[in-house]
C-alpha cells in the first residue's frame, strides 16, 4: 500500500513548442522525381544562337514593293467653302444613288414591249403550225383515241414482258440470245412510245 511508484520524467524531456500539433506525412519519393514544367522563358544559363545572317536585301525589296505596288486611292471628300472643313463625299448626298430613284426596280418599258412582241410572235407561230398541219391533212387524236392507244401499248408491253419472264435462266445458245435481245428491243420501244404519249397531251397523225 502507499503511493504508486511511477518513474520520474527526465528533465531533458520537457514540453517543447508546437510538439502537440499534427504533423504532415513525409513527402514521397515519386513526387520528388517528377519533372518540373518547361519554362516559357529562357534560363539564365541559356545562350542565344549566334552567327545567323540573312542574305535578303531589304533595301531593294522595299524599293521594288514601292514601285510595283498600287497607289492608295484618296477618299473622295468635299469642302463647304474655300478654306472650310473637309467632309466625306459618299454620305453627303451630292453623289447620285440609283437605288433611290423613283423608277428603281421597275421593269423598263422596252423590256415589257419586247416581251409582248415575243408572246405575239409565239402565238402567230403556233397558228401557222396549225394551219400548216391542216393543209397537210393532219388529224388530231381525241382523248378517247389517245387513251385507247395508250392502253393498247401497255397491254402489248405486258405480253412481251410475260414472254421475257418465261425465258430460261441460262442463255446458252445463239437463238435464245437473239430472241432475248429481240424481246428487250420490243420492250424498250414500247416504253419509249408510252412515255411519248403520256408526255404529250396533243398528238397529230397523218390521214391515210
Number of helices: 5
Q: Give the overall shape.
A: flat
Strand order of the largest sheet: 1-2
Strand content: 5-15%
User: What structural class do you assign from the helix and strand content?
Assistant: mainly alpha
Tell me the Rg in angstroms.
52 Å
Q: Mean pLDDT across all residues, rounded?
A: 83
Percent range for helical residues?
40-55%
How would you characterize the largest beta sheet? 2 strands, antiparallel
**Poorly predicted spans:** none
**SSE order, as H and E?**
HHEEHEHHE
What is the count of β-strands?
A: 4
Distance between the termini: 155 Å
What does this 3D model show about the protein?
Helices cover 44% and strands 6% of the residues. By secondary structure, the chain is mainly alpha-helical. A hairpin with a 6-residue loop joins β1 and β2. The chain is flat.
